[in-house]
Amino acid sequence: MTAGLPNARPRRPATAAVLLVLASLGAGSDAAAQSHYFDASLDFLHDDNVGRAEVDEDVLEDNIIALSGSLNVPQVLDSRSGLLHSLRLEYAAHTEWDDLSALTASAASTFRYQPGASFSAPWYEAQLVAALLQYRDSDIRDGAQLHLNLALGRNFTDRLVGRVSYRYELRRAWEGDVFDLDNHRFSGNLDYDIGERMTLYGTLAWQTGEVVSTATPRPQVLNASETWRLDEALSERPIAAIPVGGFYPGDRFAYRLDADTLTGELGINFAMSQSLALDLSALHFRAYGEGDNDYDGLLLRAGLLYRF
Fold first, then answer.
1. d(CA 279, CA 198)
2. Tens-place pLDDT, residues 188-217
3. pLDDT tens per residue across span 40-73
4. 77-99 pLDDT, tens per residue?
């Protein structure tokens, strides 16, 4: 694979970044090398712990339908390096806890450099992503995110591609500070091609920093949290409720905690054509929060990816 040459079919963004930073380094003409392209996806997800809670009574499930589209513009710098500029818009509709439905607009620039010309020569990437988040009715979550991603990847064989990466995430909320988060994430990813149409992929990641868990008020969580606030989007306060101990029954609060989080993802990508792919994945997460506030969950995803 020459530097920046894209994969022949659309891929999930988390794994595709290795393969599509330039649309056609090594292509026959400058015009082809500078052409833009579009990505679109339709995803169906099941999240079995949408509030990232520990206690069973606070563990809430949800189904999500997400539609996204992006414009990607490659820019060749020289024979070994280039840039990819992307604009992306996504809407995620939550079917159960619909106040969590959100519109995300993001812009990204990715720099890629492959110093060697051999098939197995490593490549290096640096990416900056800025995003705005607007929720249907959850003011404490509205805000902005900034990601800095650094990665190293290489082809081990004509079927196996590996990648290690680091990401710094900064998130700031417009209202309150519960969702003001700073995180460092380290991950490793492998893609294995099975024939010409199917790819298996897996990712292991460790994140250290801060998380938000939504739960009913408990001393264990209150004492360990840095800050907390009523989470109306995930509360179930009955009509004419009477407060008990200063809290209403059914209310849940969002707590910001220091935590380390481990995630593992397995997925399969099946090319239905040169421009259309089916992507299936399962992601398990386990967070170890301050004060033994631990939680885990499973996120299942089925998606259609289209490139044109």
1. 10
2. 999 999 988 999 999 999 999 999 999 988
3. 999 999 999 999 999 999 999 999 999 999 999 9
4. 998 999 999 999 999 999 999 99
Can you give the residue ranges of every domain in the chain?
A: 41-64+116-307
- Distance (Å) of CA 271 to CA 67, 69, 104, 160: 19, 19, 27, 17
Phi first, then psi: give them for residue 95, nearest 5 degrees.
-85, -25
Say how far apart CA 170 and CA 182 lie, in whole Å.
5
